[in-house]
Design brief:
mainly alpha, 114 residues, globular, 6 helices
Length: 114
């Protein structure tokens, strides 16, 4: 019976979004960042994805994007989390912290050398 529940959750829209999110995490861990970003993007674009999964995918995509030198895109993802309805409080808190660090790093890089 457990296998039927697993199959049902795997092929439902929300279950598929959760599966893509987990695959994105695995790919990021393995250093396959382009594939991880693609998985996270698919989650974000899935209308039936639960808000908590969408928020976590946005956060993880921001982390991967920032680590690969795409600070502006990472900042945009973090700001989306802060304006999302249904994003978990802990994800909002971490997004706010990371956004502060991203913005401070951008300010340091914009300063002229003296």
């Amino acid at each position: 019976m457990a296998i039927l529940a697993w199959l049902k959750s795997r092929f439902s829209s929300s279950g598929h979004a959760e599966w893509l999110y987990r695959r994105g995490m695995l790919r990021a861990k393995l250093g396959r960042v382009d594939e991880a970003v693609a998985d996270y993007t698919a989650v974000v674009e899935t209308a039936a994805a639960p808000p908590r999964v969408r928020a976590m995918a946005l956060y993880n995509r921001a982390i991967v994007l920032y680590s690969t030198g795409h600070a502006a895109e990472a900042g945009a993802d973090l700001k989306k989390i802060l304006s999302m309805n249904g994003a978990p409080a802990h994800v909002r808190t971490e997004a706010r912290r990371k956004l502060t660090r991203v913005e401070r790093a951008a300010e340091r890089n914009d300063r002229p050398d003296t």
